[in-house]
Amino acid sequence: MSSTSHRSDLEERRGIVTNLLNLRDQGLLTTGVKRTVAASQGCTVRTVENWIANADQHDGVYTPRPRRRTQLTAEMRGELAIWCANRHSAYEALRERGEIDVTYSQFTRLVARDLAPGHLASFKEGTDGLYAYELRNSRGRGLRNQAWEADHLDSKVSVRLGNEIVQPQITHVDDASTNAICGLAITPHRPSSDAVLATLRDAVLRDADHGPFGGIPALIRVDRGSEFIGKAAGQAMNSLGIQRVIVRKPWQKGTVEAINGACTSTLLSGMRGWSGKPTSKGRPARYDGPVEDLLTWEQFVAKVLRWRTEWNTEHTMPALGGRTPLQAWQDDLTPLRDISRTALHRYTLQTDRPFHVVHPGGIRWKNADYYTDERWLRDCIGSHVRLRYTPHHRRTLQVYRAADDHYLGEVYLKDTATPEQKRAVVRGNRRVADRAKRDRERGERMLTKRYAATTEVTPAQPLDNLTYQEAEKELARLGITLPDETPEHLPDPTSSWGTTSSAPRQTEHPARPAHNLPAPTRSWGSDPSAPPPQATHPDGQETAS
């Protein structure tokens, strides 16, 4: 019975007793009235009389005696925390120490009564388990561009890219008010800061190529991925005046997580080569079909962009009142902050230092030369310029005048490597990485000290699997020389060394008293250090041995 129902029953009983006392004062309390009350309350007449007697003892107010309850002690709570909410193990440990005097069934009822499910989950899974039982208020939808949310989505779809098989990653930025996908970028590998900047540019721009969604938002929620909290993304958001809010839990950016789930269930799961399907053995699914049946990179990108258009313009949602994200966006008349393409390009690029000097051979940057055939570069020889670039993109640089930050043009990397050289470098780096991996695994095996398996209580027996020759070979490979264990040659003694000290005199160092040892017996045997006994003749003369 809950505490609320118990209080309501108590108040009802007090009202009944008060009415009975009033009837008694008026002389109208009869046995028939007591029987009627007892029948309505499901008790006996004697119980009703006890209620009246209890009220007489407490100044006319029915006050029941509090029920004796066993409480969950601090030792019980601590033992539950030690055993990660395992009730049986905690009870056995308390019973062995004599710190509990209830049965196991009573102990489980105490735990269920005094500890909330979230409290028990925190014993088992820590704060993550507690978060699952927390009350979360739904965040208001707000206005358009009031808050954006960004995230990466692993497609888990095998796609053909040239002669390789890749799994593309999707980076997208969504409006939390209208559920519109404002910006999207796709990379064939794990995205980095350049993918975040490309997505941000695609989300902010509003024109015929990018659609009506965009503008500069007030804030953007991101997780703790290095691509979102890095220097490049932070510099771009600060330049645009966007507040970056770093969240720690997926439900704190629920809009983008919901769109991730919708994209997976309505698009990616139906593609050939999707590895997210469950298997009977519990391992991730693998595509075993012919490679020719897989989507190409261009086909995959086209399908994702088409799905984005359908989501924004055709997909209706109950949370939006049966409207599409486009309709919800157009119905919201909140003013938008726009920015020109040139200014956006400037703010979403990274710069390294205040200026560079233009030489006759071009612009020197990171041990490479950049050049262009346009006239403006020849006119800027000897002047100071500022370089902006996209992270991880060394092919081109954007050049600005250092004095007034005026855009001049684009320069290109000179003496680029040939395709054969690139392939050779990739193969060489792969061989170096494989060799380093093998050396690391070998070193870990040699550092691990192994012991023999045992089935009984015995000291652990180490397994010495390294021979003397193997140790010498490994030390030679590592360039380690052990110190010589032979003692150093001592010089010959001279007269200055003095003579060996004589035995201490009795007066200076008195000898200790001898121990009283028992006399030797025949069972002791002969002394091995004593000379062998001489054979004797019967007449008493010694004979030669």
From TrEMBL:
Residue ranges, compositional bias (Polar residues): 493-505
Classification via Gene3D superfamilies: Ribonuclease H-like superfamily/Ribonuclease H
Boundaries of every Integrase catalytic domain copy: 136-333
Region ranges (Disordered): 481-545
SUPFAM superfamilies: Ribonuclease H-like (SSF53098)
Pfam families documented for this protein: Mu-transpos_C
Domain of life: Bacteria
Database matches in InterPro entries: Integrase_cat-core (IPR001584), RNaseH-like_sf (IPR012337), RNaseH_sf (IPR036397), Transposase-like_Mu_C (IPR015378)
Name listed for the protein in its UniProt record: Mu transposase C-terminal domain-containing protein
